[in-house]
Amino acid sequence: MRPLDIGGGAHATHIRKATLADLPALERVDALALSAQDRFERTALRRLLRSKTDIVIVAVHDGAIAGFAAVSRNSRDCWLKGLAVLPRCRRMGIGRQLVMSVLRRTEREDRAIKLAVRADNIAAQLLYDGLGFTACGVRERYYPDGAAGLMFVAGASVPQAGNGRQ
Ligand SMILES: CC(C)(COP(=O)(O)OP(=O)(O)OC[C@H]1O[C@@H](n2cnc3c(N)ncnc32)[C@H](O)[C@@H]1OP(=O)(O)O)[C@@H](O)C(=O)NCCC(=O)NCCS
């Protein structure tokens, strides 16, 4: 993936594909950005990084990884499995740039991108809504802690409702 520059000078940010060497930095972002029930296991992150079909992209800000997005892919569509930005780097457009990069990739592949977000995660819902995602269902008790999940989809090639759990 070609790096995407979204800033200049002292606060330049770019998006690139993650490698296995990024695992410690990804674990750090995971631990600082996500609540305990939403964190990835180290083995899950490593599996994503090693996968030939799934993709992890990172946002590098001021020379350090400030956020990541993880996407799993099958023959029909893609799932945004994780999105996280370090608390100190939020509201700078990094989350938006990560999701835009995912969207560009899935558009190129003519695939839909789906995701689930906690019903009380308004910040993430506003982010997805602003990038053209459509809310397409609610799954009660979607998360292991019993929280409901809102399903979102973007891209043309799947129905806009009735998406199952990934
Ligand atoms: C959700 C998250 C990824 C957003 O990252 P971010 O880099 O701060 O987001 P951006 O700066 O790109 O914001 C893009 C848009 O999202 C919305 N948004 C983001 N954070 C918001 C907040 N705290 N309150 C309200 N809207 C918010 C806004 O519409 C914002 O656009 P604006 O700044 O022009 O108003 C980040 O808050 C995070 O890591 N949260 C914890 C993990 C998480 O919830 N992941 C999503 C799981 S589905």
Please tell me about this protein's structure.
With 166 residues, the protein is an alpha+beta fold. The chain has one domain: Aminopeptidase. The protein is 27% helix and 31% strand. The chain is built from four helices and eight strands; from the N terminus they run ββααβββαβαββ. An eight-stranded mixed β-sheet has the order 1-2-3-4-5-6-8-7, with helices on both faces. Helix 3 links the parallel strand 5 and strand 6. Bound molecules: coenzyme A. The site of coenzyme A has 19 residues, from strand 5, helix 3 and helix 4.
Number of self-contained structural domains: 1
Radius of gyration: 15 Å
**In the CATH hierarchy, what is the class?**
Alpha Beta
Please outline the major beta sheet: 8 strands, mixed
Can you write the helix and strand succession as a string?
A: EEHHEEEHEHEE
Q: Topology, please?
A:
Elements: E1 4-5, E2 13-17, H1 23-33, H2 42-50, E3 55-61, E4 64-73, E5 77-85, H3 94-108, E6 112-118, H4 122-130, E7 134-139, E8 149-154
Parallel strand pairs: 5-6
Antiparallel strand pairs: 1-2, 2-3, 3-4, 4-5, 6-8, 7-8
The structure holds coenzyme A.
Coenzyme A binds at residues 33-34, 83-85, 90-96, 117, 121, 123-124, 126-127, 130.
Give a quick rundown of the structure.
With 166 residues, the chain is α+β, with helices and mostly antiparallel strands. The protein is built from four helices and eight strands, in the order ββααβββαβαββ.
Question: Keywords for this structure?
Answer:
globular; alpha+beta; Aminopeptidase; single chain; binds coenzyme A; 166 residues; 4 helices
